[in-house]
């Protein structure tokens, strides 16, 4: 009798990620052994009796990769970061272990908004005027030289965190100080990085989800973002697929993403690209070496025949992949946080779930959690999913369900005297 050797995969699982359970469920379905690596507090984890791999410093990729290698008892067959936060660590580990994957340089370039803008400008893509704002630059001195509106961006944050539009010099001054504070709280290299300021790009926004294999891009979905994202903040809400763009424009988007991936050095694994489209063409906002965030990937299950997470693990382990099938339309709403405060609960959830074409509603926020709207926050109240015959029907169902939900948020927190 021939023994079956179980494949193993090292998963970088940030504690705050929405997607950990979905990836672990996919690994269990595939019969894959998981080597979990998490970022619980290194000071508290030993007292809690946690293994060293549960308390890795994700903010220090080189140190984190060394810690992981020191505590591995067996080499995995693949390494995968389930979220943006672990991409550079995963690239370093694959390099050290001799596993296929994107290079550290390619991952770093696509995570850095300034480096990515330089790449686009150097190779003739549609690219807005942009400049670097160093940590010691006085925004008041720079403001008169800008043509408004502009967008101020933190260099490595995602989910629209630290992105603010400014329509004049006064707003620019305020935006720089605000984004500096946001980046300073969550990126340890904030002062070295500085910020990016670029001309605002008018137009409708779209997103592409794909999978690279030896440089060849397989498109999993092209999403419409029907809500206008014109600022002052840019919190995303609705994604709907298939896109209602003309086929010629869809082809142009794919061509631009493929070209950007090639120039950046991305060759394998998931790709999530964001772009704006206007009369001048396709303007790439980002091309990231990761899949779609939050729980949004669940909307693709019916076209993939399996979860997106299972498909990604299959790809990482070089297992057969399904064909993408066209079967109606689907949508997701990332339920936006309307105001800062403590989450107290939601009413009319059953009524919202009963809306025609709604397939699921997941409230991911715990009662008592502090809510931070954009641009400080990077989370959502939850996710609404729809499936219908047409993109319009899928979109309308999301909006109808959202209108029914009544969230209770306590904005004034009582203080008990000592």
Q: What fraction strand?
A: 25-35%
Quote the CATH topology of the domain at 8-108.
Rossmann fold
What's the mean pLDDT score? Answer: 94
Profile the largest sheet: 4 strands, antiparallel
Q: Provide the CATH top-level class of the domain at 8-108.
A: Alpha Beta
Main β-sheet, spatial strand arrangement: 4-7-5-6
**Beta-strand segment tally:** 18
Spatial gap, N to C terminus: 71 Å
Q: List low-pLDDT spans.
A: none
How would you concisely characterize the structure shown here?
With 418 residues, this protein is of the alpha+beta class. The chain is built from 13 helices and 18 strands.
How would you describe this protein?
- With 418 residues, the chain is α+β, with helices and mostly antiparallel strands.
- Among the domains are: 101 residues, 3-Layer(aba) Sandwich (Rossmann fold); 71 residues, ATP-grasp fold, A domain (Dna Ligase, domain 1, 2-Layer Sandwich), CATH 3.30.1490.20; 91 residues, ATP-grasp fold, B domain (D-amino Acid Aminotransferase, Chain A, domain 1), CATH 3.30.470.20.
- It contains 13 helices and 18 strands.
- The strands form 5 sheets. A 4-stranded antiparallel sheet has the order 4-7-5-6, sandwiched between helices.
- A hairpin with a 2-residue loop joins strand 8 and strand 9.
- Helix 1 crosses helix 11 and helix 2 packs across helix 3.
- The longest helix has 18 residues.
List the helices and strands and how they pair.
Layout: E1 8-12, H1 20-30, E2 33-37, H2 61-71, E3 78-81, H3 87-97, H4 104-111, H5 113-122, E4 130-133, H6 139-142, E5 150-154, E6 163-166, H7 169-186, H8 190-193, E7 195-199, E8 204-213, E9 216-225, E10 238-241, H9 247-264, E11 269-278, E12 281-288, H10 301-304, H11 308-316, E13 329-335, E14 341-347, H12 349-353, E15 358-363, E16 370-371, E17 382-388, H13 391-404, E18 406-410
Parallel strand pairs: 1-2, 1-3
Antiparallel strand pairs: 4-7, 5-6, 5-7, 8-9, 8-11, 10-13, 11-12, 13-17, 14-16, 14-18, 15-17
Helix pairs in contact: 1-11, 2-3
